[in-house]
Model the fold of this input.
Amino acid sequence: MNTLHSARGKRGFFLVLTGLCVWLLLAACSLSCARKEKTDSDEARSGAAGAPFKVGLVFDVGGRGDKSFNDSAYRGLVRAKEELGVSFEYIEPGEGSDRASALRLMAKGDARVVFGIGFLFTDDITQTAKEFPDKKFACVDYTVTDAGGIPANLVALKFREEEGSFLIGAIAALKSKTGKLGFVGGMKIPLIKKFEAGYVAGATYVRPDVKVLVSYAGVTDNAFKNPSKGKELALTQYSKGADVIFHASGSTGLGVFEAARERGKLAIGVDSDQYAEAPGYILTSMIKDVDVAVLETIRAAMNGTFEGGVRTLGLKEGGINYVYDDNNKALIGEDVRAAVETLKQKIISGEIVVPST
Done:
């Protein structure tokens, strides 16, 4: 009798123990499922659990290392990584259709916003944005012919280059000893003609009798990556009496700097601070803050304030400026600096309207 009660007690104990184990397993499964649901929800918002916001960028002609336009865009990516925690990848395309292929490759991947750097991307990025409506796109120097035709997921980032070039022209004219200046453009297109127009306008505004020699490196995109041609054009202008030359020609301008060193003359950089390329010979540089435009576009895409359409940056918006720092302030001088700052405020207020053609 005692043996029977003992057996029954053991079976009861094992039944209770088994039930407890089953309950624990069910509870664990329930907790795991709840955690999985939360993770899936987070992934829907972030794209991948724990993965940073991804950015893709396709460079313009010349790629990284042009010490100018493309390098400014790259600085924007680096700043976004440091300040916003994003990850990024980039492509340096070849000629022709490679731009379209590169944009599509980025859009098909996990990049949340894709940049095309340069006006040559206009048609390709417009089409790609239409094909991938769930991705955000941005194009620096987008050629706007019909603002209404820009997809809602694409922002055209444009600059009033003529305003900064006006100030550069004034500096060059005020510092020139010969009364002759030079301008070396890359590809002869409306965008680069804006640099020329502003430069000539600023120079003649402060010195009506000044002469400006103008040369272009070509009519294809190769004109932005031909330093030997830049040097040839600059040497010709220096031989004709120019003592300050402003270039707007990508890496072609590196040849202009080489000519300045050889002849002991002055040159002016573009897009980025190019003083380091020829210390003592770079009077100043016209700054086009592509890095800031890239950074702020990424920020907007991350916080939900991204808006498609045209965004134009000039002196007033802080997207354009010129270099005046410890490296070149002795070259420019305080009197010229003061005069140019007055012109800057007149442009911002609208008192001076700078021509773009």
About this structure: The longest helix spans residues 2-46. DSSP finds eleven helices and twelve strands in the chain. Confidence is low (pLDDT under 50) at residues 1-48.
